[in-house]
Structures are given as structure tokens and as C-alpha cells.
Amino acid sequence: MNAEDELEAPQPQARPLHPKPSDFKHALGAVNTFNEKIAVFTVNFVGSMWCAYAFGVLAIAGIPAAISSGYGIVQWFASTFLQLVLLSVIIVGQNVQARAADQRAAETYELAKQMADIVDQATEQQQDQIRMLQQALANPRR
User: Fold this and answer.
1) Who contacts 84 (Cβ-Cβ below 8 Å, separation ≥6)?
2) Among positive and negative, which fits the CA dihedral 29, 30, 35, 40?
3) Residue 123, domain member (yes or no)
4) Is residue 27 within 8 Å of 40, Cβ to Cβ?
5) Predicted TM-score of the model (pTM)
């Protein structure tokens, strides 16, 4: 095993895009006030693929009303479908990117710790060699 193999970062594991009730409970435990809890719950709920699916169904259910009222399919698509569905999908995407960034940061930190240990070992070896050279110069053999 060479040095490149040791420094290779492990691949991040995939997480589901659908939150479990325990995810909500964990997130709510991190905040204190009632308003913060409502905000965290709302963001976690709206930022889920289940919510994106529900908003998609809700938006599609409004197609007949949009067509019959003369609202127009293009305007319905731009003002209703995109806003409802993309809101959740964008939040999900941001959450996925944040988890990936956290994983990369943790891997970088671990790699930096390993590199610091290697540098410390090299420094100790160099200090030992300097001491040996100083002793050899102080007590030359003839």
C-alpha cells in the first residue's frame, strides 16, 4: 500500500431525500423557541421530496381550472407549477449539497490531521538526527 492509497478519501454514502420522523425530532431538538421550532419544521417539511410530490399533484389538479378560466397553460405552468414544485426541489438540492460539503470538510480535516502527524514524526526524526550530529561534532573520534 503506497502513500496515495492511504490519502485517498472515502466515498460519501448516499442519504435518502425523504426525511424520517426522527430527522424532524432531531432538528427540532437543536432549537429552543417556539418560532424557531415552527421555522425548522416548515423548512424540513417543505424541503422534502414528499412535499415536492404533493405540490406537483396539487399543481396538476389545478390545470382544468386554469384552462377553463382562460388563465392559459403557460401562465399556469410558470406561476403555479414551477413555484410550488421548484421550491421544494431547490431546498432538497441545497440540503444534498450541504451534506456533501460537510462530508468533504470532515474528510479534509481528517486528512489534515494525518498530514500533521506525518510532519510531527518527520520533525522528531530530524531533531534526533541533529542531536546525533551535534554529539558527533562535540566528541570527534580521531
Assistant:
1) 55, 56, 58, 59
2) negative
3) no
4) yes
5) 0.56
